[in-house]
Amino acid sequence: MIKINLVREGRAVRGTGAAAGAASAVSGPTNLNNVFLGALLIAGIVVAGGWYFLENRKLSERQDLLVQKQAEAKRLEAIIKEVENYKKQKESLKTRIDLINQLKQNQKGPARLMDRISQDLPDLVWLDKMTVIGNTVTLDGRGLNPNAIANFVESIKNDPMFEEPDLGSVTQVSAVPLVYSYTMNFHFTYAPKGAPGTAGAATSTAPGNAAPATGTAATPPTSTAPKR
């Protein structure tokens, strides 16, 4: 005969249901934590991705700006070199022009000076020697009579290029033909007397209104002059 304890079986069934409920209660909070952690992880990934994108964009912009600045620096460097070369060429050209002008001035100076003296030289008077030191001219020459030499002195005096001449001695050097030697020196300038900006400029006298020569220049030494 088989006996079944129904009270004990009921207790066992009730104990099993309680255990299952407890297990279900424990697993519920764990799932919520996992979801929360997953959400935080996703948010972190999104934030990190956004930050990486922004930083990468800033870096790209800075690199582009750096490339532009380098290109601008190269362009400006080329322009600076061109300007420096232009300045060097300008200085070289200016030096050459100054040298050419100086050479022209040196070449035309004595020629112009000699041309003016030859224009002032009257008849019966000629030159033997002309010396130019600085702006001082010394003339050594001869004439057939003292009056002609005096006229030459007056012509030099009235020339706007020349200052007051200083006549040295007038000496008879030959009786047949009658010839007198003379020495004269004076200062000259390429800026005519009386021109604007010329210091100490004197008003020139027209050759037609020239004053008579001084007695010293016009009269030969009586001791050496021949008697007629």
Question: Can you tell me about this structure?
Answer:
With 228 residues, this protein is an alpha+beta fold. It has two domains: 7-89; 121-218, 2-Layer Sandwich (Alpha-Beta Plaits). The chain is 58% helix and 15% strand. It contains three helices and four strands, in the order H-E-E-H-E-E-H. A hairpin with a 2-residue loop joins strand 1 (125-133) and strand 2 (136-143). The longest helix is centred in the first third of the chain and has 115 residues, at 6-120. 11% of the residues are buried. The model is unreliable at 197-228 (pLDDT under 50).
- Helix coverage percent of residues? 55-70%
What's the multimeric state?
A: single chain
Major sheet: arrangement of strands: 1-2-4-3
Q: What's the alpha carbon Rg, rounded to whole Å?
A: 59 Å
Number of strands: 4
Q: How much beta, percentage-wise?
A: 15-25%
**Name of the CATH architecture of the largest domain:** 2-Layer Sandwich
User: What coarse outline follows from CA principal-axis ratios?
Assistant: rod-shaped
Low-pLDDT residue intervals, each spanning 5 or more residues:
197-228
Average the pLDDT over all residues and give the rounded result: 75
Number of domains: 2
Would you give the CATH topology of the largest domain? Alpha-Beta Plaits
**Biggest sheet, open or closed, and with what strands and sense?**
4 strands, antiparallel
Tally of contiguous helical segments: 3
Q: What is the string of helix and strand elements?
A: HEEHEEH
**CATH uppermost class of the largest domain:** Alpha Beta
Distance between the termini: 209 Å
Structural class of the helices, strands and pairings?
alpha+beta
